[in-house]
Q: What sequence folds into this?
């Protein structure tokens, strides 16, 4: 999901770290008009936002390009989650500076979480940046670009309580034509003490349920076969129909999207252990097309640390949620996010994170060492007292164990047959397809004539590493 992420690769529905900074492009025949170039970092939400930005720019006559040297507008959609994420962005800005010096008149804009966090300071620190635009201000881009064209700096970092971009139809970029993201909410009202997101994305708000169903229906009709519903905490999705006063919660929303068509797969991210309800789990179980996979970040396996993190659940609560998932959906895969070396974490407490990886039997995890973020609760209240070398050693221990657990999890799939949605050619060979099963595991298998991306097939697994399954078509 993040570019500074020393995690397992492969079995992931989140943005693959190799894809970080991926340049979005769609064939364009625009011989007239201007071009924009956009790079995206951070979470799926940022990638999804870039598609909203692209749509707004297209409305202004801009076409996307893969070549920053020929673009009139260079944009970078940024992430602030860890220090390393911000370092990456600053490095990219040095490259953009060079392009700009060779091509005066090019406008360089910083979007997203880092723009929101640093605000005006960005324009002072980075002299060649022309635009600083926060996540809720993208509608203002045309006006801000106009300001920059006149030689002034354009900045809008206003955070909204209402903006959901519900009416903007995203311009799908870098798409495989099979899977797409749909933002169902924005912001976050949880105050996890380590996390910068509430400050960069503002208050939580849910998008109009009808607009979500309409977007998913439209994607299905265009040939897409998988949608991922996105929010920082999807389980707190709540939208009240202003006319009927009916309240749509996440379980209801899942059901509405699942009913669009049995061939449209539904995924979602991220679930919060404190909010995920049995109602959601039963809805998942009731619909074959709701994928049996839950990303349920634990952050720490120790109750004292969880309290310091302000996660509002403890180890026992988390375990109960995991047990409920496996009870209601025995074939469900669970993945996690884990932070090593949070303030004051002892060796015994670190052991609790390790034992959780083993106990919960995660199919995969995103693992990080704690990176203090300015302005967060932890920054203000606690000392970042675990030496870097110890944080890194603990992280390595978690990664090593998760690798073993993932390997075991995948080995257990050998001999099983899964329904796989073909996404395209495998990375290694154009003689092979890749696709995912419901549990979000990537499966690679030899092609057969007549099959294409977007088709469902049955694949029997005969080989497994900690990252990928290999199999062959059956039936
Ligand atoms: N909303 C999601 C996560 C968003 S951030 C959730 O609640 O789970 C993605 C992940 O980055 C987090 O789950 C956490 O594991 C990690 N993360 C966030 N802040 C961090 C920090 N300051 N240092 C290290 N990792 C962090
Ligand atoms: Fe950050 Fe916590 Fe909100 Fe996730 S739930 S975005 S970790 S504050
Ligand atoms: Fe990063 Fe912002 Fe997402 S801080 S993880 S891009 S919400």
A:
């Amino acid at each position: 999901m993040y570019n500074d992420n020393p995690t397992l690769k492969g079995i992931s529905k989140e943005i693959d770290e190799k894809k970080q900074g991926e340049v979005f492009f769609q064939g364009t025949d625009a011989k007239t008009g201007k071009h924009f170039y956009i790079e995206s970092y951070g979470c799926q939400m940022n990638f999804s936002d870039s598609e909203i930005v692209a749509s707004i720019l297209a409305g202004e006559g801009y076409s996307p390009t893969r070549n920053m040297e020929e673009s009139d507008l260079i944009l970078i959609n940024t992430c602030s989650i860890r220090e390393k994420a911000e370092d990456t962005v600053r490095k990219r800005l040095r490259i953009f500076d060079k392009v700009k010096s060779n091509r005066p008149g090019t406008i360089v804009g910083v979007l997203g979480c880092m723009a929101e966090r640093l605000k005006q300071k960005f324009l002072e620190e980075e002299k060649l940046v022309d635009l600083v635009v926060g996540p809720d201000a993208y509608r203002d881009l045309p006006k801000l670009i106009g300001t920059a064209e006149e030689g002034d700096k354009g900045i809008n970092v206003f955070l909204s309580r209402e903006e959901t971009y519900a009416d903007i139809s995203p311009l799908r970029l870098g798409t495989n034509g099979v899977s797409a993201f749909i933002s169902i909410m924005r912001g976050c009202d949880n105050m996890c003490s380590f996390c910068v997101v509430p400050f960069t994305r503002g208050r939580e708000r849910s998008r109009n349920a009808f607009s979500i169903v309409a977007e998913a229906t439209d994607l299905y009709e265009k040939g897409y076969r998988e949608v991922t519903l996105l929010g920082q905490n999807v389980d707190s999705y709540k939208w009240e129909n202003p006319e009927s006063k009916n309240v749509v919660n996440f379980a209801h929303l899942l059901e509405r999207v699942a009913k669009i068509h049995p061939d449209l797969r539904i995924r979602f991210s991220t679930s919060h252990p404190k909010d995920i309800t049995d109602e959601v789990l039963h809805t998942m179980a009731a619909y074959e097309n709701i994928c049996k996979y839950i990303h349920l970040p634990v952050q720490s396996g120790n109750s004292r640390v969880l309290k310091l993190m302000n996660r509002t659940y403890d180890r026992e609560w988390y375990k109960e949620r995991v047990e409920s998932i496996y009870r209601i959906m025995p074939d469900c895969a669970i993945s996690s996010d884990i932070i090593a070396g949070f303030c004051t974490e002892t060796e015994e407490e670190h052991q609790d994170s390790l034992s959780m990886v083993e106990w919960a039997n995660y199919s995969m995890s995103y693992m990080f060492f704690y990176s203090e973020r300015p302005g967060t609760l932890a920054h203000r209240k606690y000392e970042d007292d675990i030496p870097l070398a110890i944080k890194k050693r603990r992280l390595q221990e978690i990664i090593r164990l998760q690798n073993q657990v993932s390997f075991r999890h995948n080995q257990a799939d050998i001999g099983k047959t899964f329904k796989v949605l073909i996404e395209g050619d495998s990375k290694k060979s154009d003689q092979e397809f890749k696709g995912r099963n419901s549990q979000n595991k990537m499966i690679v298998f030899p092609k057969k004539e007549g099959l294409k991306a977007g088709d469902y097939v049955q694949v029997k697994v005969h080989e497994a590493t900690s990252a990928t399954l290999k199999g062959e078509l059956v039936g």
